[in-house]
Amino acid sequence: MARISWKEKKKNKEVLEEIGLKHTELLKTIKTRQLAYYGHIRRHQSLQKSIMEGKINGKRQRGRKRKSWLGNIEETTTRRINECCEVALNREEWRRTIASNLWQETEQR
Predict the structure, then answer these.
(1) C-alpha to C-alpha distance for 109 and 103, rounded to whole angstroms
(2) CB burial of residue 56 (10 Å; 0-12, 13-18, 19+)
(3) Element containing residue 76 per DSSP (H, E)
(4) From the first residue on, what is the mean pLDDT of each consecutive set of 10 residues in the chain (109 residues)?
(5) CA angle at residue 73 from 71 to 79, to 5 degrees?
(6) CB neighbour list of residue 62: distance below 8 Å, 6 or more residues apart
(7) Which pLDDT value is given to residue 48?
(8) Residue 60 and residue 47: Cα distance in Å, rounded?
(9) Residues 34, 30: Cα–Cα separation, whole Å
(10) What's the pLDDT tens digit per position in 31-49?
(11) SS3 72
(12) Backbone angles phi, psi at 8, to 5 degrees
């Protein structure tokens, strides 16, 4: 975007100011793209879909459970993942879901 090298050692805040974005706008953009990509994956038969839906055999390591990508989708949409899977199959309905989610997020701030 702004062609800022990591070697310049600028803080995130400085970079965002230089680009002209606020932290909340950046998060909103990330969440929007994440939801759009999830819908794209759900509608197509692909390796990514198989990986996303798959389970890994074996034991989980000790400690806190890692936050999953699907968990983030649930948290962002405030819906269960089962509902998200159903809605994402219909592109227009999924787009409305994304738009309404962003509208609610904007109202909360």
Answers:
(1) 10
(2) exposed
(3) helix 69-77
(4) 79 82 79 90 82 72 81 88 89 89 64
(5) 95
(6) none
(7) 78
(8) 23
(9) 6
(10) 899 999 999 988 888 777 7
(11) helix
(12) -70, -15
Q: Is the dihedral of CA 51, 75, 98, 90 positive or negative?
A: positive
> The tokens of 44 are what?
């197509």
pTM metric for this prediction: 0.67
First to last CA, the chain: 26
CA distance 3 to 5: 6
Q: For residue 23, give the 3-state DSSP assignment.
A: helix
Place of tokens 């230089």: 18
- Residues 2/15, Cβ–Cβ less than 8 Å: yes
Contact yes or no for 35/105 (Cβ under 8 A): no
Q: How far apart are CA 107 and CA 88, in angstroms?
A: 24
Contact assessment for residue 91 and residue 38, using Cβ atoms and an 8 Å cutoff: no
